[in-house]
Amino acid sequence: MVGRIALGCVTFGREIDEAAAFELMDYAVEQGINLFDTAEAYGEGASERIVGRWLRARGCRDRIVLQTKVTTDFSMAHVREALARSLDRLQCEQVDVYLMHSYDAGRPIEESLEAMTWSVDAGKAQTIGGSNFTMEQLRAALAASLARNLAPLRVLQPVYNLVAREAADGLFRLCAEHGIGITSYSPLGAGFLTGKYTGDRSAMPAGSRFAIKPAHADLYFHPANFEVLAQLRRLAETSGHSLATLAMAWVLRQPAIDSVLTGARDKSHLDNALHCMRHLTELAAVWEDATHRFA
Fold first, then answer.
1. How many domains does the chain divide into?
2. Is 42 tagged catalytic?
3. Which of 98, 44, 97 is nearest to 74 (CA)?
4. Which of 8, 11, 85, 277 lies 20 to 30 Å (CA to CA) from residue 47?
5. Looking at 27, 42, 98, 160, which residue is catalytic?
6. What's the pTM value of the predicted model, to 2 decimals?
7. Range 163-177 average pLDDT
């Protein structure tokens, strides 16, 4: 069982150092957050190493639902090697959830699932899933699992926020039909929905997600998205809630989502998500009144 708020560890070793990450993980556990999401790609392994050292130092592996991802090349040989390296960095013998970080269109899905099934059969992962799958890709994976008697995907990790809503167009329903848990990510659009970006690529705030990973601008810097941001800013002014609070609440009010990953750099980012959960009824009412603006 996981809480509605989860800790995204993408910032560890890339945007914050180990001491700050330790403090953040301690705080997350204090607040009842038990799903920690990382990946071999985050900080080129730095995130997994930091999480592993924290787990060893705190001795609380049994209290954490640990989720990590293999980046690409889902051949049997590579998945075995990648998972072995991830477990070594995480300093544990098993992860709870092992995800394909994306769908590999260049490889038959049956081959990818055979490799992922091995991780379960070998006792290296409790369950498997996928990240960034479309509805069609998920259908293909489910059909292949059934036809080949392979481990089914039990967790899906899609992006979902005010300006990236495609997952609600059938994907959520498909997950519900097949008992697949949803741990969505990027509820604030990697910070885009906090209003910190103007669209000027030469003026990214220092240390921000877009400054560190400029490719985010290609995803979010579009006129339609800035119009949504302008509408969100007007709602913040009339409601008295911050842009970040409203954007997070918009995701949390989606009943199809089981857990929302919060990629935090400090406690305030987790506090925003926790505040939204405590006041979700009030915030949902704000959104009910404003839904027509964001149709």
1. 1
2. yes
3. 98
4. 277
5. 42
6. 0.94
7. 95
